[in-house]
Amino acid sequence: MYKLSPFTYTFAGRSKAKKIFLDSTLIFERNDTVAIIGPSGGGKSTFLKILKGIIPEYSSGKLEGEVLFNGHPLSGVYFQENLQKILYLFQNPFSQLIYPGTEEEFLFSMENFNFTREQMDREKEKFEKLFNLKNIWGKKTSELSNGECQKLVLASMLAIGPDVLLLDEPTAFLDPTARKEFYQYLDVIRKDRLLIIVDHHVDEIRPLINKVIFVDHDGHITPGFFTKNNFVVEDISLPKPKTAEEVNVTVSDLSFSYHKDRELLKEANATFKSGEVVAVRGRNGEGKSTFFKLLSGILKPKKGQILLEKNGKTYKNDKIFPHVGFVFQNPEAHFFFDTIEEELKQSFRFLSKEHTVLKDDLLSRFFHDIDLKKSPFLLSEGEKRRLSILMTVFLEKSLILYDEPTFGQDQKSIEEIIVLIRELKKLGLIQVFISHDDYLIEKIADRVLVLEAGRLYEVPRA
């Protein structure tokens, strides 16, 4: 399958010439299951793009050295020949959607490779059961949750039977049940295939793996091994306001639906108080992100109301929006400008004088050698997520909503995010987050709410 001789890839258009490089020889064979691990932003996703042939086929950077698949390079005529053999799941599954409808999207890859109608129906039935896709047929792809989108793209790829699967954080948005089922499926299909996986759920993928590759902060690719990292992260000291803010949010009989035949939220009720950090859990497609859009005032409820009380004043439904900071599930939804520097300037405008001095400290904690002149769209997905968190926190809102705050993060970055949320808690902010990360919930959640069948239920901490 793959033979990688020493190579260097240099990114184009950088004021600091970022590279990823290999200075030894690596061989990946059929039946291997390879884990690629390392810090966020080191170059793991770039390495997968090299293995797919996207680099150098569609890259303006410079690749020097030899990367062979079945004895041939991955670019030119061989890139076209390998389209069905090597499939690559991007970290952001929405970037791979073609069709507006879910069924058309699922069938597209098979149609492209001339599958018969009988073959397509058979694969559709198989993956509908495997990934619980029945509830998404008939939906627009734009209405899918990230977890639903991830399952759809995965299913459409697996249906055409590739020889090599390159999976970039394939379970980042899956709930624990879906994640467990996916790993069980990988265990079945890994025989007679090559699987190469970037995944931060190290303990869960460990039994599947027979090779480990480490990509460090400087982009150096080496054979590696799993370790248990225990990071100690220094506390952040945010200046305390002279008067603590008193904020309360009340959700009463909240109902909402996108379609008449399915009510997504049904008379949901919840309360949130100053200084609380609350986790919201639920299976993919239950409506967690929709609940956040209602809670922020982006969407209007069909029935019921949301009240935010702040310093003696009350705001209702869409009037809440100016008081809310929302970390969207897709970090690119935050970006409007050409450079990271310009993006941050917009957020810095809202920083109080007391907190302005901390912006450089927070940037150095969240990023390794960041180039502020670079486009935010050129960051890794993990770096994009950390940038979107900082941009939102710098707005200094009373209620902060985090939709999957730790996806794509290495352990050190997760610890930095935990320290930041704990410090913001001391300021009396309300912080609510959606996550499937048991570790994060255990470390910071005061309470846990589960969204199920349209209603919110408080559950005991594990």
Automatic annotation (TrEMBL):
Superkingdom classification of source: Bacteria
The cross-references to InterPro entries, in alphabetical order and at most eight, read: AAA+_ATPase, ABC_transporter-like_ATP-bd, ABC_transpr_CbiO/EcfA_su, ECF_ABC_transporter_ATP-bd, P-loop_NTPase
In what way does this protein cross or attach to the membrane? Peripheral membrane protein
Q: Where in the cell is it found?
A: Cell membrane
Q: Note the PANTHER family from the entry.
A: ENERGY-COUPLING FACTOR TRANSPORTER ATP-BINDING PROTEIN ECFA2, HEAVY METAL TRANSPORTER
Which species expresses this protein natively? Bacteriovorax stolpii
Q: Which GO terms describe its molecular function?
A: ATP binding; ATP hydrolysis activity; ATPase-coupled transmembrane transporter activity
Q: Which UniProt keywords apply?
A: ATP-binding, Cell membrane, Membrane, Nucleotide-binding, Translocase, Transport
Give the CC-aspect GO terms: ATP-binding cassette (ABC) transporter complex
Protein name, per record: Uncharacterized protein
Is Membrane one of the keywords UniProt gives this record? yes
